[in-house]
């Protein structure tokens, strides 16, 4: 073609309102289509239903209006990116065409042509500066708003899944499922982070914007195809191969090439979902073994168990490496395929369009813009092929979080002892049967009534079901039947185990547990410490420590009794709760309970004869399900 005076490819002076109008129309169409696609995925695909099960509540109800509005803003920013990329392709055309005109003007000694080319070149440079400024500003705003959205979503989802895990003791009862969920702590901490980041590459980082998320990345790709297809179609010419002429060849090459390579990539990458899931599973198991070893360091040291622990760790680490070898091999296979395909395609648009340039049918700027449009269409159509490994990782994350939600539901659905409220504050067990997980009968048809102020000691040989009976009364054990009446429905009760739980925090929080906030005066806390012979800790109420590591087992058990004195429950269950306390302190503590809480019902499980003297009722359990209840003489301290 004969190049005359330079003429810009767009009316840049009026481009801002035109681009805003284009973006607004694109936003409306894209929002409707995206919503329809998301609804279809949530209903028709397994992973879509799992996604909605995990986080659907965040996008429902009146409070979700702000969420959808935020997503609408992020969608608008995504479409602005597409429009800016389109404008950059026209700017690239102008830049190269202006250079061509200027060079031809110099060669033809045509000052007007040369001047128009030079003017066009600098106009293109200024245009680039304006577009680049908008591009960078948009990217910063995009990252900021995306991070705000991710953080809000993660806060909500963490609260939702943590509450779901803790509700109705699902975190404990889940161990009785046929297939207990592994590492719920990791799923709540790491998987929620990766889930809300939505990149498929792991946890959120401060640089994640819409372009790096799977949803908006896919939207960007599809809208880019629509935006660049007219450009590529108009600039593509016919190509003759073996006497066969194909019109708009460059467009059809991009379409067929991407379709074929994507199908193969999906076949290569499909096993990555399994490898990614196994990678998280095996790493979590190894990490759990390390944490467990750290917590039991003293016991392991006394046993000289270093070599045994090393063997356990080696076994779990070997599972990581075995899975990771396959993970790496399959990832390299997919990466090699994608890289090869991307390199092969690089010179293709220039080779196809060069023939028309040499014939003078198009300008050099048209060649460069058609190449830019070709790469944009190719990359956009190749989006799903390029991110298949990321999608596989994200799919594994969805599976793990859905597994946690499913396990919580199943744990809550496990049977438990029927419970009702007693009107007189008594504990009444009616025809209670307790079995072990394998169906063996531990306690057969127990009938028992305890009035306010009564005390009961439970004894029996190892494995007869003493502690299991307390678990059944606490409605934690799923292998018990019968009816229980207790004060205030769920019961104003405290269960003290042999190893008390001491939460992280200061000593004030430890003494106030399980209350979420300390509403007890320091004077009462100090008095309770004095009552259980821990007065030396009175000056450390504000010390923040891991108290389970600071206090001895006997001191930890006395802290548990201090909680009882502070919270004054109507029913107290003690499971070997004085096993680490000497007999003198044990005697004093039981006298404190009877003196300070005369109307409370006390139930003790013990193997120590010294505990029996503090109770008026004695329940003996035998290994064959039989039981025997007798009333003792007046207990000590009453």
* Morphology call: elongated
Compute the number of helices. 22
Q: Which spans have pLDDT < 50 for at least 5 consecutive residues?
A: none
Arrangement of strands in the largest sheet = 8-11-12-6-13-14
Fraction of residues in helices?
A: 55-70%
Rounded to the nearest angstrom, the distance between the terminal CA atoms is 113 Å
What is the overall pLDDT average?
88
Major sheet summary line: 6 strands, mixed
Strand content range = 5-15%
Number of DSSP strand runs: 14
Rg calculated over all Cα atoms: 36 Å
Global structural class: alpha/beta
Task: Give your account of this protein's structure.
The chain is of the alpha/beta class and 638 residues long. It has 22 helices and 14 strands. Helix 20 packs parallel to helix 21. The mean pLDDT is 88.
In short:
The chain has 638 residues and is α/β, with parallel strands linked by helices. The protein has helices at 15-44, 46-55, 65-108, 111-166, 170-173, 184-197, 214-235, 249-269, 272-295, 297-303, 306-345, 348-358, 364-381, 383-386, 388-413, 466-473, 507-512, 522-531, 547-550, 553-567, 583-596, 609-612, and strands at residues 239-241, 244-246, 418-421, 427-435, 441-450, 455-459, 480-486, 493-496, 505-506, 544-545, 571-575, 601-605, 617-621, 627-631. α4 (111-166) packs antiparallel against α6 (184-197).
Question: Which secondary structure elements does this structure contain, and how are they paired or packed?
Answer:
Blueprint: H1 15-44, H2 46-55, H3 65-108, H4 111-166, H5 170-173, H6 184-197, H7 214-235, E1 239-241, E2 244-246, H8 249-269, H9 272-295, H10 297-303, H11 306-345, H12 348-358, H13 364-381, H14 383-386, H15 388-413, E3 418-421, E4 427-435, E5 441-450, E6 455-459, H16 466-473, E7 480-486, E8 493-496, E9 505-506, H17 507-512, H18 522-531, E10 544-545, H19 547-550, H20 553-567, E11 571-575, H21 583-596, E12 601-605, H22 609-612, E13 617-621, E14 627-631
Parallel strand pairs: 3-7, 6-12, 6-13, 8-11, 11-12
Antiparallel strand pairs: 1-2, 4-5, 4-7, 9-10, 13-14
Helix pairs in contact: 1-2, 1-3, 2-15, 3-4, 3-7, 3-13, 4-6, 6-15, 7-13, 8-11, 8-13, 9-11, 9-15, 12-13, 18-20, 20-21
């Amino acid at each position: 073609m004969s190049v005359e005076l330079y003429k810009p490819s767009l009316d840049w002076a009026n481009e801002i309102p035109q681009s805003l109008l284009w973006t607004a129309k694109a936003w409306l169409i894209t929002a409707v289509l995206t919503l329809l696609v998301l609804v279809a995925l949530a209903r028709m695909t397994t992973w879509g239903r799992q996604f909605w099960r995990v986080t659907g509540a965040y996008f429902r109800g009146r409070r979700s209006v702000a969420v959808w509005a935020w997503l609408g803003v992020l969608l608008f920013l995504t479409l602005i990116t597409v429009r800016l990329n389109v404008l950059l392709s026209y700017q690239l055309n102008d830049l190269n065409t202006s250079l061509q005109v200027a060079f031809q003007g110099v060669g033809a000694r045509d000052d007007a042509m040369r001047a128009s080319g030079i003017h066009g070149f600098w106009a293109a440079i200024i245009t680039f500066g304006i577009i680049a400024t908008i591009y960078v500003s948009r990217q910063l705003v995009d990252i900021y708003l995306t991070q705000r959205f991710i953080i809000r979503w993660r806060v909500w989802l963490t609260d939702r899944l943590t509450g779901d895990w803790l509700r109705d003791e699902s975190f404990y009862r889940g161990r009785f499922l046929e297939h207990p969920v592994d590492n719920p702590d990791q799923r709540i901490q790491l998987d929620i982070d990766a889930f809300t980041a939505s990149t498929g590459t792991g946890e959120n980082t401060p640089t994640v914007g819409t372009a790096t998320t799977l949803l908006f990345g896919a939207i960007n790709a599809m809208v880019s195809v629509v935006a660049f297809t007219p450009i590529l179609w108009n600039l593509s010419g016919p190509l003759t191969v073996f006497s066969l002429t194909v019109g708009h060849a460059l467009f059809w090459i991009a379409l067929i090439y991407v379709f074929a390579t994507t199908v193969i990539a999906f076949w290569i990458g499909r096993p990555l979902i399994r490898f990614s899931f196994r990678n998280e599973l095996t790493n979590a198991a190894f990490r759990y073994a390390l944490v467990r070893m750290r917590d039991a360091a003293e016991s392991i040291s006394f046993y000289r168990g270093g070599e045994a622990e090393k063997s356990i760790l080696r076994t779990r680490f070997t599972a990581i490496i075995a899975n990771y070898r396959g993970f790496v091999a399959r990832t390299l296979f997919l990466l090699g395929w994608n890289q090869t395909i991307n390199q092969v395609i690089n010179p293709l648009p220039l080779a196809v369009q060069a023939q028309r340039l040499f014939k003078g049918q198009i300008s050099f700027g048209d060649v460069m813009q058609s190449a830019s449009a070709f790469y944009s269409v190719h990359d956009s159509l190749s989006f799903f092929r390029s991110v298949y490994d990321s999608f596989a990782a994200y799919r594994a994350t969805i599976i793990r979080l859905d597994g946690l939600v499913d396990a919580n539901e199943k744990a809550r659905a496990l049977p438990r002892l029927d419970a009702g409220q007693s009107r007189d504050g008594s504990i009444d067990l009616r025809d209670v049967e307790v079995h072990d997980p394998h169906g063996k009968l531990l306690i057969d048809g127990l009938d028992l009534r305890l009035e306010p102020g009564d005390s009961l000691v439970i004894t029996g040989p190892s494995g007869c079901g003493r502690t299991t009976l307390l678990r059944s009364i606490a409605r934690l054990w799923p292998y018990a039947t019968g009816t229980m009446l207790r004060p205030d429905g769920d019961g104003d009760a405290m269960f003290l185990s042999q190893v008390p739980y001491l939460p992280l925090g200061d000593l004030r929080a430890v003494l106030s547990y399980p209350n979420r906030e300390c509403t007890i005066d320091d004077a009462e806390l100090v008095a309770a410490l004095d009552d259980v012979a821990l007065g030396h800790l009175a000056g450390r109420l504000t010390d923040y420590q891991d108290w389970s590591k600071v206090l001895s087992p006997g001191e930890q058990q006395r802290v548990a009794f201090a909680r009882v004195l502070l919270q004054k429950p109507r029913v107290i269950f003690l499971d070997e709760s004085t096993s680490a306390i000497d007999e003198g302190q044990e005697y004093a503590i039981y006298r404190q309970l009877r003196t300070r809480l005369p109307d409370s019902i006390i139930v003790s499980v013990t193997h120590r004869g010294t505990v029996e003297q503090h109770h008026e009722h004695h329940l003996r359990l035998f290994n064959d399900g039989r039981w025997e209840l007798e009333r003792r003489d007046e207990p000590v301290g009453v």
